[in-house]
Structures are given as structure tokens and as C-alpha cells.
Specification:
alpha/beta; Collagenase (Catalytic Domain); three-stranded mixed beta sheet
């Protein structure tokens, strides 16, 4: 469902949208619409205070997350572009499920500062992160999910 972004979240100085303010907006929208969980996807460029840009943002142990496709298409064919979107979505949803950043550079929960970081990651949680998730995420069915 398309959602209009609040103008107060836009920084004309940076030419970017404040991800934290947009996440707050998604939370209010989620509550207003009676949704259980929301993953927003935008093609706009995002930043967070202290960071030049972000690929996404989420509430730790919350039920709202946001990813930006703005920088993910750079130098990518369609398959790689979709892979990057999937990885960033899994990463932010992992934060919703209580996972922090992982030290394993191939884990989807590893912090991505560059597209190379995102490309290096697999589109799955490492063993340590998987076992930190609720029990049903640690089942054989989840580990073998394509």
C-alpha cells in the first residue's frame, strides 16, 4: 500500500529522508491500521543521525522496519538488485526479532556500510544468529528454506 512520507522527515540540507522519523511514522500508521507488523520499502535515500546514509532501519524487538532501495541498484543487474533487497529486508526484520549486528561477515545480520558488504553477505542468518531467534526459526525447515 503506497504511503505518503511526512515532509518533516525530509532534510533539504542533505537531500535525504530521516529514517528514524519515517520509522516513527510507520509505527503510527501500523497502529492506526491495526497491523501486526510493517516493513516499509522506499526508493528514497535515507540517513540516520551520525550516518551519511542507511540501507534500512528497524525497531529492535519492535514490529516496524524500513528499507531503502535507493543505493541498492548501483552496479547491479536485476538478480543482484533483488538479492540486495532481500538481504536488507532480512537484516532489518532480524533487528525486529531481537538480533543485533553479527561479527560474521557472511551473516545477513552483519552491518553493511557499503554495497560490497551487502554483496558479501548470504541471504540467511548464521548459525549463532539462527539459534538466537525464537525456537521455530531454529528448525530444520527454516535452515533448509531456499
Amino acid at each position: 500500500m503506497p504511503v505518503e512520507m511526512p515532509r518533516e522527515a525530509y532534510s533539504s540540507l542533505k537531500g535525504q529522508w530521516n529514517g528514524e522519523l519515517l520509522l516513527d511514522h510507520l509505527k503510527r500508521l501500523k497502529e492506526k491500521k491495526g497491523m501486526l507488523w510493517v516493513l516499509g520499502i522506499t526508493s528514497s535515500d535515507l540517513y540516520a543521525p551520525g550516518l551519511n546514509f542507511i540501507f534500512g532501519i528497524a525497531s529492535l524487538r519492535g514490529t516496524e522496519a524500513l528499507i531503502s532501495t535507493y543505493r541498492l541498484k548501483e552496479g547491479a543487474g536485476e538478480k543482484e538488485y533483488l538479492s540486495r533487497i532481500l538481504k536488507e529486508a532480512l537484516h532489518e526484520l532480524g533487528h525486529n526479532m531481537g538480533l543485533g549486528h553479527c561479527e560474521n561477515p557472511s551473516c545477513v545480520m552483519h552491518f553493511s556500510n557499503t554495497l560490497a558488504d551487502t554483496d558479501r553477505k548470504r541471504d540467511e542468518y548464521c548459525y549463532i544468529c539462527r539459534t538466537s531467534l525464537p525456537k521455530w526459526f531454529s528448525t530444520e525447515s527454516f535452515r533448509s528454506f531456499p
